Structure formats: C-alpha cells, structure tokens
Amino acid sequence: MYVEKQGFTKIEHSKVTTQMPPVNMGISLLLVVFLALCLFTFAAIALSSALNESKQAQDIVARKEAYYAACNEAEESLRDLSAQLESGASILSMEQTLHFTISDSQELQVTIAPAKDGHDYRVLGWQTVDTTVWESVDQITLIQ
For 45-104, what is each residue's pLDDT tens digit? Predict the structure, then answer.
C-alpha cells in the first residue's frame, strides 16, 4: 500500500511489528549496577582488612623489638655481674630482682639468687610484667 504525503512515498506493511518491552534493558542494567556495587564493597572490605592487618603486624614487630632490646640489656647486665663475680667479688648475697623497661606499660623482671659458693648466680625468673594499675571506669549497682 502506497501513501502519498508531501511528496514522499511511504510503504506500509501489513505485518504487525512487536517491540520488546523496555523492562528487559532496565533489569540487566540494574543487575550490572548491583554487581558493580557488590564488587566495590568487597574490594573496600578487603582493603580495610589488609590495612588493619598491616598495622597490627607493625605493632607486633615494634613490641618484639622492644622486648628483645630489654632481653639484650638484661643479658649484658648478667654478663657484667658474672665478670664481677669471676674477679672474686662477692656482691650477690641474697635474691635480687632486676628491672628492665620494655614499654610504658611493661617491664622485664629477672630474678637472680646467689649460688651455694657465693661466686655464681642462678636465674630464678625471667618474665614480662604489666606495670600499669588497672582501674575500673564503670560502676554498676546491682541490688540496692
């Protein structure tokens, strides 16, 4: 069928053309946006976790370095004490505890006692001790 309109010829087909509803495009777009948001969220969580673990690892390394520095200082003190005892001085008469600072809240305590002959010593204790005083912040009244 030919239709004349302002000098143009238009052919109309008798077939009915079916159009896809625009909802299909919307669902796939929403799915892509949802997946992108999920991936972004998982990436942010992974990055946050990695940064947190890195900070914890650095804190652990710093604490271990401080502990081993205190251990080295204790070993040097015991070496000096051994040298004095070997030279014949009997400076160790009773049990003593030596204190070496690890951090603001911890110290290494080394407890030594004289040996039977008085010219040697025994290490009785080698421990890390918390030096802060714990104070309760909250008080709860249970029964009045």
Answer: 999 999 999 999 999 999 999 999 999 999 999 998 888 878 777 666 788 899 999 999
In whole angstroms, what is the distance from residue 116 CA to residue 120 CA? 8
Q: Which residue has the tokens 């911890």?
A: 106
Residue type, 138: D
Judge whether 100 and 73 are in contact, CB under 8 Å. Answer: yes
Residue ranges of domains in the chain: 22-130
Helix ranges restricted to H, the chain: 23-86
Question: Residue 102: exposed, middle, or buried by beta-carbon count in 10 A (0-12, 13-18, 19+)?
Answer: buried
pTM: 0.64
How long, in residues, is the chain? 144
3-state helix, strand, coil in the chain (%, to 5): 45, 25, 35
Place of tokens 């942010």: 44
